[in-house]
Design goal:
Number of domains: 3
Largest sheet: 6 strands, parallel
Shape: elongated
Structural class: alpha/beta
Number of helices: 12
Number of strands: 13
Helix content: 25-40%
CATH topology of the largest domain: Rossmann fold
Order of helices and strands: EEEEEEEHHHEHEHEHEHHEHEHHH
Radius of gyration: 29 Å
CATH superfamily of the largest domain: Tandem AAA-ATPase domain
Protein backbone atom coordinates (compact mmCIF):
# COMPACT_ATOMS: atom_id res chain seq x y z
CA UNK A 1 0.00 0.00 0.00
CA UNK A 2 1.27 3.49 -0.80
CA UNK A 3 1.19 6.81 1.04
CA UNK A 4 -2.11 7.64 2.70
CA UNK A 5 -3.49 10.98 3.76
CA UNK A 6 -5.71 9.38 6.34
CA UNK A 7 -5.44 6.13 8.29
CA UNK A 8 -8.07 4.24 10.23
CA UNK A 9 -6.60 2.85 13.47
CA UNK A 10 -8.39 1.42 16.46
CA UNK A 11 -11.72 2.79 15.31
CA UNK A 12 -10.42 6.38 14.97
CA UNK A 13 -9.25 8.64 12.15
CA UNK A 14 -5.50 9.35 12.08
CA UNK A 15 -3.92 11.77 9.61
CA UNK A 16 -0.33 12.28 8.55
CA UNK A 17 1.51 13.97 11.40
CA UNK A 18 -0.82 12.56 14.04
CA UNK A 19 0.86 12.19 17.41
CA UNK A 20 0.82 8.59 18.65
CA UNK A 21 2.48 6.40 21.25
CA UNK A 22 3.18 2.72 21.61
CA UNK A 23 0.67 0.71 23.61
CA UNK A 24 3.41 -1.41 25.20
CA UNK A 25 5.65 1.60 25.87
CA UNK A 26 3.61 4.81 26.43
CA UNK A 27 6.80 6.80 26.91
CA UNK A 28 7.75 6.16 23.29
CA UNK A 29 5.95 8.93 21.37
CA UNK A 30 6.17 9.75 17.67
CA UNK A 31 4.30 10.98 14.58
CA UNK A 32 2.75 9.06 11.69
CA UNK A 33 4.46 9.63 8.34
CA UNK A 34 1.55 8.30 6.27
CA UNK A 35 3.48 5.29 4.97
CA UNK A 36 2.37 1.75 5.76
CA UNK A 37 2.88 -1.88 4.84
CA UNK A 38 0.68 -4.93 5.12
CA UNK A 39 1.83 -8.36 6.21
CA UNK A 40 -0.94 -10.89 6.18
CA UNK A 41 -3.87 -9.32 7.98
CA UNK A 42 -1.74 -6.86 9.95
CA UNK A 43 -1.04 -3.32 8.77
CA UNK A 44 2.28 -1.74 9.83
CA UNK A 45 2.50 2.06 9.97
CA UNK A 46 5.68 4.07 9.74
CA UNK A 47 6.29 6.22 12.82
CA UNK A 48 8.89 8.97 13.19
CA UNK A 49 10.11 8.91 16.82
CA UNK A 50 12.62 11.72 16.33
CA UNK A 51 15.65 9.57 17.03
CA UNK A 52 14.56 6.81 14.65
CA UNK A 53 11.85 5.79 12.20
CA UNK A 54 10.24 2.36 12.31
CA UNK A 55 7.13 0.45 11.26
CA UNK A 56 4.70 -0.50 14.01
CA UNK A 57 1.65 -2.81 13.83
CA UNK A 58 -1.72 -1.10 14.09
CA UNK A 59 -2.54 -2.84 17.37
CA UNK A 60 0.60 -1.33 18.91
CA UNK A 61 -0.37 2.30 18.15
CA UNK A 62 -2.74 4.61 20.01
CA UNK A 63 -3.57 8.28 19.78
CA UNK A 64 -1.99 10.77 22.18
CA UNK A 65 -4.68 13.15 23.33
CA UNK A 66 -2.81 16.17 24.72
CA UNK A 67 -6.06 17.87 25.70
CA UNK A 68 -7.28 15.09 27.99
CA UNK A 69 -4.18 13.77 29.73
CA UNK A 70 -5.05 12.59 33.23
CA UNK A 71 -2.34 11.08 35.41
CA UNK A 72 -4.87 9.11 37.44
CA UNK A 73 -6.34 7.63 34.26
CA UNK A 74 -2.91 6.59 33.04
CA UNK A 75 -2.17 4.97 36.41
CA UNK A 76 -5.49 3.13 36.37
CA UNK A 77 -4.71 1.80 32.88
CA UNK A 78 -1.19 0.85 34.02
CA UNK A 79 0.39 2.89 31.26
CA UNK A 80 3.90 3.62 32.42
CA UNK A 81 7.01 4.78 30.62
CA UNK A 82 10.34 3.01 30.53
CA UNK A 83 13.18 3.28 33.02
CA UNK A 84 15.12 5.28 30.43
CA UNK A 85 12.21 7.75 30.26
CA UNK A 86 12.36 8.27 34.02
CA UNK A 87 16.12 8.83 33.89
CA UNK A 88 15.77 11.26 31.00
CA UNK A 89 13.04 13.25 32.74
CA UNK A 90 14.99 13.42 36.00
CA UNK A 91 18.04 14.65 34.10
CA UNK A 92 15.91 17.32 32.45
CA UNK A 93 14.46 18.43 35.79
CA UNK A 94 17.92 18.55 37.33
CA UNK A 95 19.41 20.57 34.47
CA UNK A 96 16.46 22.96 34.49
CA UNK A 97 17.14 23.72 38.15
CA UNK A 98 14.05 22.15 39.73
CA UNK A 99 16.02 19.34 41.41
CA UNK A 100 18.53 21.43 43.30
CA UNK A 101 19.83 18.76 45.67
CA UNK A 102 22.33 16.17 44.59
CA UNK A 103 22.75 13.41 47.16
CA UNK A 104 26.47 13.39 47.84
CA UNK A 105 26.22 10.60 50.42
CA UNK A 106 25.09 8.04 47.84
CA UNK A 107 27.69 5.32 47.18
CA UNK A 108 30.28 7.06 49.36
CA UNK A 109 29.90 4.87 52.45
CA UNK A 110 30.48 1.24 53.33
CA UNK A 111 26.76 0.44 53.36
CA UNK A 112 24.39 -1.52 51.14
CA UNK A 113 22.06 0.61 49.05
CA UNK A 114 18.43 0.70 50.16
CA UNK A 115 16.42 3.53 48.64
CA UNK A 116 14.25 4.04 51.73
CA UNK A 117 17.33 4.88 53.81
CA UNK A 118 17.87 8.01 51.71
CA UNK A 119 14.38 9.37 52.39
CA UNK A 120 15.51 10.88 55.72
CA UNK A 121 18.46 12.51 53.93
CA UNK A 122 16.13 14.20 51.43
CA UNK A 123 13.66 15.17 54.17
CA UNK A 124 16.47 16.63 56.24
CA UNK A 125 17.77 18.71 53.32
CA UNK A 126 14.29 20.17 52.83
CA UNK A 127 13.73 20.85 56.53
CA UNK A 128 13.65 24.58 57.37
CA UNK A 129 14.41 23.77 61.01
CA UNK A 130 17.58 21.73 60.34
CA UNK A 131 15.98 18.97 62.37
CA UNK A 132 14.41 15.56 61.83
CA UNK A 133 12.74 12.81 63.87
CA UNK A 134 13.42 9.37 62.35
CA UNK A 135 10.87 6.91 63.68
CA UNK A 136 11.50 3.76 61.63
CA UNK A 137 10.81 0.35 63.10
CA UNK A 138 13.56 -1.72 64.69
CA UNK A 139 15.92 -3.24 62.13
CA UNK A 140 15.42 -0.72 59.31
CA UNK A 141 18.76 0.98 59.86
CA UNK A 142 18.19 4.24 61.72
CA UNK A 143 21.90 4.36 62.58
CA UNK A 144 22.76 4.18 58.89
CA UNK A 145 20.18 6.85 58.03
CA UNK A 146 21.69 9.20 60.60
CA UNK A 147 25.19 8.40 59.34
CA UNK A 148 24.15 9.25 55.78
CA UNK A 149 22.90 12.63 56.97
CA UNK A 150 26.27 13.29 58.63
CA UNK A 151 28.07 12.24 55.42
CA UNK A 152 25.86 14.66 53.48
CA UNK A 153 26.62 17.54 55.85
CA UNK A 154 30.35 16.88 55.61
CA UNK A 155 30.21 16.94 51.81
CA UNK A 156 28.00 20.02 51.54
CA UNK A 157 29.09 22.25 54.39
CA UNK A 158 32.41 20.83 55.59
CA UNK A 159 30.81 19.91 58.91
CA UNK A 160 33.46 18.98 61.45
CA UNK A 161 31.92 18.18 64.81
CA UNK A 162 29.44 15.33 65.34
CA UNK A 163 27.94 14.59 68.75
CA UNK A 164 26.06 11.36 69.41
CA UNK A 165 24.10 11.06 72.66
CA UNK A 166 22.71 7.62 73.48
CA UNK A 167 22.14 5.18 76.34
CA UNK A 168 25.46 4.03 77.81
CA UNK A 169 25.11 0.48 76.49
CA UNK A 170 25.01 1.74 72.87
CA UNK A 171 28.19 3.81 72.92
CA UNK A 172 30.53 1.09 71.65
CA UNK A 173 28.05 0.13 68.94
CA UNK A 174 27.95 3.70 67.68
CA UNK A 175 31.73 3.98 67.71
CA UNK A 176 32.09 0.80 65.66
CA UNK A 177 29.32 1.73 63.19
CA UNK A 178 30.71 5.20 62.55
CA UNK A 179 34.19 3.83 61.90
CA UNK A 180 33.39 0.79 59.76
CA UNK A 181 30.51 2.21 57.73
CA UNK A 182 31.33 5.91 57.45
CA UNK A 183 35.04 6.22 58.17
CA UNK A 184 34.40 8.53 61.14
CA UNK A 185 36.82 8.45 64.06
CA UNK A 186 34.74 8.94 67.19
CA UNK A 187 35.76 9.13 70.84
CA UNK A 188 33.65 8.13 73.82
CA UNK A 189 33.77 11.05 76.25
CA UNK A 190 32.19 12.05 79.56
CA UNK A 191 30.73 15.41 80.61
CA UNK A 192 34.05 16.94 81.59
CA UNK A 193 35.76 15.85 78.39
CA UNK A 194 32.86 17.08 76.27
CA UNK A 195 33.06 20.47 78.00
CA UNK A 196 36.71 20.73 76.96
CA UNK A 197 35.73 19.85 73.38
CA UNK A 198 32.99 22.48 73.24
CA UNK A 199 35.34 25.15 74.55
CA UNK A 200 37.49 24.69 71.47
CA UNK A 201 36.61 26.33 68.18
CA UNK A 202 34.83 23.59 66.23
CA UNK A 203 36.57 24.71 63.04
CA UNK A 204 39.83 23.55 64.63
CA UNK A 205 38.56 19.98 64.97
CA UNK A 206 39.73 17.29 62.59
CA UNK A 207 37.48 16.95 59.56
CA UNK A 208 34.35 15.02 60.55
CA UNK A 209 35.39 14.26 64.11
CA UNK A 210 32.81 12.46 66.26
CA UNK A 211 32.13 12.36 70.00
CA UNK A 212 29.88 9.86 71.75
CA UNK A 213 28.34 10.41 75.18
CA UNK A 214 25.81 8.65 77.35
CA UNK A 215 22.60 10.38 78.35
CA UNK A 216 23.20 9.36 81.93
CA UNK A 217 26.68 10.88 81.95
CA UNK A 218 25.61 14.26 80.58
CA UNK A 219 22.42 14.84 82.55
CA UNK A 220 22.67 18.05 84.58
CA UNK A 221 22.05 17.62 88.30
CA UNK A 222 18.97 19.16 89.86
CA UNK A 223 19.58 22.73 90.93
CA UNK A 224 22.42 23.19 88.44
CA UNK A 225 21.43 26.84 87.95
CA UNK A 226 21.69 27.54 91.70
CA UNK A 227 24.82 29.60 92.37
CA UNK A 228 24.82 28.50 95.99
CA UNK A 229 24.89 24.82 95.14
CA UNK A 230 27.90 23.03 96.57
CA UNK A 231 27.81 20.35 93.85
CA UNK A 232 30.25 21.67 91.27
CA UNK A 233 30.11 18.60 89.03
CA UNK A 234 31.21 18.28 85.38
CA UNK A 235 27.54 17.89 84.41
CA UNK A 236 26.67 21.16 86.12
CA UNK A 237 29.56 23.03 84.48
CA UNK A 238 28.63 21.59 81.08
CA UNK A 239 24.97 22.60 81.43
CA UNK A 240 25.83 26.14 82.46
CA UNK A 241 28.34 26.50 79.64
CA UNK A 242 25.80 25.38 77.03
CA UNK A 243 23.13 27.70 78.42
CA UNK A 244 25.55 30.64 78.30
CA UNK A 245 26.41 29.94 74.65
CA UNK A 246 22.90 29.17 73.37
CA UNK A 247 22.67 32.49 71.51
CA UNK A 248 26.15 32.37 70.01
CA UNK A 249 27.64 30.41 67.13
CA UNK A 250 26.75 26.72 67.23
CA UNK A 251 29.17 24.49 69.11
CA UNK A 252 28.10 21.28 67.33
CA UNK A 253 27.49 20.71 63.61
CA UNK A 254 25.18 17.73 64.07
CA UNK A 255 23.57 16.34 67.21
CA UNK A 256 22.24 12.78 67.00
CA UNK A 257 20.14 11.50 69.90
CA UNK A 258 19.50 7.76 69.83
CA UNK A 259 16.58 6.28 71.78
CA UNK A 260 15.13 9.79 71.83
CA UNK A 261 11.91 8.67 73.52
CA UNK A 262 13.80 9.11 76.80
CA UNK A 263 13.39 12.87 76.19
CA UNK A 264 9.60 12.76 76.02
CA UNK A 265 8.97 13.98 79.58
CA UNK A 266 9.71 17.74 79.56
CA UNK A 267 10.14 17.78 83.34
CA UNK A 268 12.93 15.20 83.35
CA UNK A 269 16.61 16.10 83.53
CA UNK A 270 17.20 14.10 80.34
CA UNK A 271 14.71 16.28 78.43
CA UNK A 272 16.33 19.41 79.81
CA UNK A 273 19.67 18.07 78.60
CA UNK A 274 18.12 17.60 75.16
CA UNK A 275 17.06 21.24 74.96
CA UNK A 276 20.45 22.47 76.16
CA UNK A 277 22.16 20.42 73.46
CA UNK A 278 19.66 21.50 70.80
CA UNK A 279 20.34 25.16 71.52
CA UNK A 280 24.07 24.80 70.80
CA UNK A 281 23.71 22.51 67.75
CA UNK A 282 23.36 23.61 64.13
CA UNK A 283 21.45 20.45 63.15
CA UNK A 284 19.65 17.74 65.12
CA UNK A 285 18.44 14.22 64.33
CA UNK A 286 16.38 12.24 66.83
CA UNK A 287 16.14 8.46 66.46
CA UNK A 288 13.37 6.42 68.03
CA UNK A 289 11.59 3.17 67.24
CA UNK A 290 8.65 3.85 69.53
CA UNK A 291 6.90 7.16 68.67
CA UNK A 292 3.81 5.33 67.38
CA UNK A 293 3.45 3.86 70.86
CA UNK A 294 3.82 7.21 72.58
CA UNK A 295 0.99 9.38 73.75
CA UNK A 296 0.10 12.41 71.66
CA UNK A 297 1.64 14.73 74.23
CA UNK A 298 4.91 12.78 74.28
CA UNK A 299 5.18 12.99 70.49
CA UNK A 300 4.55 16.73 70.64
CA UNK A 301 7.45 17.25 73.05
CA UNK A 302 9.83 15.33 70.76
CA UNK A 303 8.76 17.36 67.73
CA UNK A 304 9.09 20.55 69.76
CA UNK A 305 12.71 19.61 70.32
CA UNK A 306 13.24 19.04 66.58
CA UNK A 307 11.35 22.12 65.37
CA UNK A 308 10.40 24.49 68.20
CA UNK A 309 9.00 27.09 65.80
CA UNK A 310 6.49 24.80 64.08
CA UNK A 311 5.54 22.85 67.20
CA UNK A 312 5.35 25.54 69.84
CA UNK A 313 1.66 25.43 70.85
CA UNK A 314 0.48 22.20 72.45
CA UNK A 315 -3.22 22.94 71.89
CA UNK A 316 -2.78 23.21 68.10
CA UNK A 317 -1.02 19.86 67.73
CA UNK A 318 -4.22 17.73 67.44
CA UNK A 319 -5.27 19.84 64.44
CA UNK A 320 -1.93 19.12 62.77
CA UNK A 321 -2.45 15.39 63.26
CA UNK A 322 -5.98 15.60 61.84
CA UNK A 323 -4.75 17.43 58.73
CA UNK A 324 -2.27 14.62 58.02
CA UNK A 325 -4.72 11.78 58.65
CA UNK A 326 -5.97 11.41 55.01
CA UNK A 327 -2.40 11.20 53.73
CA UNK A 328 -1.53 8.56 56.32
CA UNK A 329 -4.59 6.52 55.33
CA UNK A 330 -3.67 6.77 51.64
CA UNK A 331 -0.12 5.62 52.36
CA UNK A 332 -1.35 2.66 54.39
CA UNK A 333 -3.78 1.70 51.63
CA UNK A 334 -1.10 2.00 48.93
CA UNK A 335 1.14 -0.39 50.86
CA UNK A 336 -1.70 -2.89 51.31
CA UNK A 337 -1.78 -5.33 48.39
CA UNK A 338 -5.49 -5.87 48.97
CA UNK A 339 -6.30 -2.21 48.22
CA UNK A 340 -7.60 -1.26 44.79
CA UNK A 341 -6.45 1.71 42.77
CA UNK A 342 -9.86 3.34 43.18
CA UNK A 343 -9.61 3.13 46.97
CA UNK A 344 -6.19 4.79 47.03
CA UNK A 345 -7.31 7.49 44.59
CA UNK A 346 -10.38 8.25 46.67
CA UNK A 347 -8.22 8.77 49.75
CA UNK A 348 -5.82 11.05 47.86
CA UNK A 349 -8.69 13.20 46.63
CA UNK A 350 -10.20 13.77 50.08
Amino acid sequence: MGDLCALILGGGLYTIGTKIRLVSDPGRIGFLTGKNRQRGETVYHQVDFGDATSYQPDYEIELVDDNHSDVFELLAQKKFGRLTDLRRNLSHIQLSGRLANLVYSMETTNTDFYAYQFKPVLSFLESPSNGLLIADEVGLGKTIEAGLIWTELRARYEARRLLVVCPAMLREKWKDELKTRFGVDASIVDAGELLNVLRRDRHEDEDGRGYICSMQGLRPPKGWRDDESSKDTPGRRLARYMEEHADFESLVDLLIVDEAHYLRNPESQTAKLGHLLRDVSENVVLLSATPINLKEEDLFHLLNLVDPDSFDVREVFPLVLMANEPLQKARTAALDKRSTFSQVRELLEE
